[in-house]
Design a protein that fits this description.
Keywords: Methyltransferase, RNA-binding, S-adenosyl-L-methionine, Transferase, tRNA processing, tRNA-binding. One of its GO terms (molecular function) is tRNA (guanine(18)-2'-O)-methyltransferase activity. Belongs to the class IV-like SAM-binding methyltransferase superfamily. RNA methyltransferase TrmH family. Catalyzes the 2'-O methylation of guanosine at position 18 in tRNA. There is one protein chain. The chain has 2 domains: 54 residues, no CATH class; 156 residues, 3-Layer(aba) Sandwich (Alpha/beta knot), CATH 3.40.1280.10. It has 7 helices and 7 strands. β1, α2 and β2 form a beta-alpha-beta unit. The model has no long low-confidence stretch (mean pLDDT 91).
């Protein structure tokens, strides 16, 4: 790994937001799923959570443009498990869902630990999801249609979160702990070697100042 690439990886990781994430519930179309991942990378989301109860995880499409390599994906066996794990980490979970208690997505304080739940392309979030989350958010619309494509809606909400966090200076502070930073930068910089060490059950070697092993 050349020093310039090492510095680039460190720069990106230092802006990753460990307490801003997305949960996808039965988003099964590869181009939509990949577009959400790509937006998460652009906004600085460190990891994404996914539940697919009715089908297998969608494979990435060319829309991802390689962003799937830079955003950690956690799959969960069911929605209750996913939401419980995030709420245990003190994240507030907001579902993009049209309901009587839904509020304009811009009224949420995204500088607080936040997870955004996006539902299936055709049916939106499930009734179970709507009951389990901390709140509902909507994107105001003034046309004939009542909803956006799920990946577009996710992008709109995530960039509002980015706007708020930029204004609060949160991208200027390192969110990830040192141990995680060192682990991930090794995995990003040396994916094949990292896989070999994981297979052996051995810790990664430390990197030198220029990023070499």
């Amino acid at each position: 790994m050349i020093p310039r690439r090492y510095e680039r990886l460190k720069q990106v990781l230092r802006k990753r937001q460990s307490d801003l994430t997305v949960i996808t519930e039965d988003v099964h179309k590869p181009h939509n799923f990949s577009a959400i991942i790509r937006t998460c990378d652009a906004v600085g989301v460190f990891e994404v959570h996914s539940v697919n109860s009715n089908s297998k995880m969608p494979t990435y499409s060319p829309v991802a443009k390689g962003s799937d390599k830079w955003v950690n994906l956690h799959t969960h066996p069911d929605l209750k498990t996913a939401i419980a794990q995030l709420q245990q980490k003190d994240l507030k979970i907001y579902a993009a869902h049209l309901s009587e208690k839904a509020v304009d997505y811009r009224r949420i304080d995204y500088t607080k630990p936040t997870a955004i739940l996006m539902g299936a392309e055709k049916h939106g979030v499930s009734e179970l999801a709507a009951d389990l989350v901390d709140g509902h958010i909507i994107i105001p619309m003034f046309g004939m249609v009542e909803s956006l494509n799920v990946s577009v809606a996710a992008a709109v909400i995530l960039f509002e979160a980015q706007r708020q966090r930029l204004a609060a200076g949160m991208y200027d502070r390192v969110s990830l702990d040192t141990k995680t930073l060192e682990r991930v930068i090794f995995e990003w910089g040396y994916p094949e070697i990292a896989a070999m060490y994981r297979q052996r059950g051995e810790p990664y070697p430390s990197l030198k100042e220029d990023g070499s092993i």
